[in-house]
From TrEMBL:
Gene3D superfamilies: 3.40.50.1360. It comes from the Bacteria. This is 6-phosphogluconolactonase. It comes from Jannaschia seosinensis. The gene is pgl. Residues 8-221 form the Glucosamine/galactosamine-6-phosphate isomerase domain. Hydrolysis of 6-phosphogluconolactone to 6-phosphogluconate. NCBIfam families: pgl (TIGR01198). CDD domains: 6PGL (cd01400). InterPro entries: 6-phosphogluconolactonase_DevB (IPR005900), 6PGL (IPR039104), Glc/Gal-6P_isomerase (IPR006148), NagB/RpiA_transferase-like (IPR037171). GO terms for biological process: carbohydrate metabolic process; pentose-phosphate shunt.
Amino acid sequence: MNLIEYSDREMLAMGLADRLATVLKLALDGHDRVSFCVPGGTSPGETFSNLSGVDLDWDRVHVFLNDERWVPEGHERSNTTLLKDTLLTDRARRAIYVPMANDAETPEAGIPALEAGLKEQLPISVLLLGMGTDGHTASLFPGGDNLAEAMAEDAPILLPMRTESQLEPRITLTRRVLADAMETHVLIMGEEKREVLERARRADPMDMPIAAFLRDADVHWAP
Ligand SMILES: O=C(O)[C@H](O)[C@@H](O)[C@H](O)[C@H](O)COP(=O)(O)O
């Protein structure tokens, strides 16, 4: 793991956007198209806004989420809405959005169509992950009802995930899909998450799923 510390959150949002732009450019130099997989939640908004203004061949960049909360688009907890409002705007409006949500009633009903679209995006070229204070990443939650299946080597691309700590059902890319990424960056902010990160470095991924992705990752942190 490579830890990159920034003096504050604004510097992180600038530095991380810059780093992601560089790795996306490098990937675009070597490939006709690249896939860029990003988290939802509250942390990445400013980084996304900075990145959206970068001059890149966005029309060759396929963007999708790590995971989604099963709520309608436009809902305040919709990661898709966050992505469209903060990243897929400005220059990055030309990027190709790959859906991680649809209007099916349940995750189980929605997943087959989403998997069909995601299949051709793998392996992920550039992966950005977030982390929760319980050590979850994407929607790989400690204690999640499908965690064992989602962490397995033979997991499907996507699985539903339900857990008591979360209001609504989720869908998540599984461990093997995320772990296959060519390049992994993790975004965390605040002292509490820094302590969680230190614990996660020695943890069993079934207890703290972020542990499965740290070894080769660049972790970007600000207080
Ligand atoms: O939908 C989500 O919530 C995520 O994609 C999730 O894995 C997130 O990255 C972490 O929970 C951190 O969330 P915060 O940035 O809100 O702390």
